[in-house]
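In these records, each integer encodes one residue's backbone shape. Here is one protein:

___
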Amino acid sequence: MDFLAEMYRRAKERAAGLKIVEDKSQPLRPFLPVLHDMAVIAEVKYATPAEGNLGITAKPGVLARRYADLGASAISCLTEPFYFSGDLAFIPSIRRRCALPVLMKDFIADERQIVAGRAAGADACLLVTEMLSLGELSALYRCARDLGLDVLVEVHGHAGLEKALAIGARIIGVNSRDLATLTVKPERHEEMIGLIPKGVATVAESGIKSGLRLKELRDMGYDAALIGRALADETFRKDIFACG
């Protein structure tokens, strides 16, 4: 299975079914300014493609409030429903319980998803370079920025980084998960960080399970880390926030 091709197809299908009402009435909570000193972007995640249901029963707003109290700098909310059990409706529930900026994390392939995310209360969104052509990436990036959203542009290798730099991305996330095999390659964080220009905010993604790893990533030069799966485990959660 070509995972990204399937996610692209599903995203287009979901976008076609969205009832779009553009709403920019909710004030934005800036996402980019909080990305410094190894900020933790804590993810509200209920399932993964590799593991299925993670057994988390707390509601999205409750989880976000818990992460904020522990010291998170921002919240990432999965809105992809099929593999991650996400929902756009999670975003407003998170905003009601938590004052941190909210990143809409999805496989975005259509501007309608971004408009719907902004209307739901997202402050930022994520774009996956490897899933999109350069033209698509550029158009989606402009759409998000025109709506006032910050954009985390995710790369998995050199080709993705070239696209991110070509569109002038201000925030680049390096995901160490190979989306073809869904395996984690931690060395990718080390390989990519030196290629990202100074002045661009950097976020390490995937495979972060300890405070020690956070310290290593900070020493490499990363500004922040997006952490999802590890927060489902109380032991990992305490260790991560103790060092974040």
The radius of gyration is 16 Å. The chain has a mean pLDDT of 93. The first strand starts at residue 39 and ends at 44.
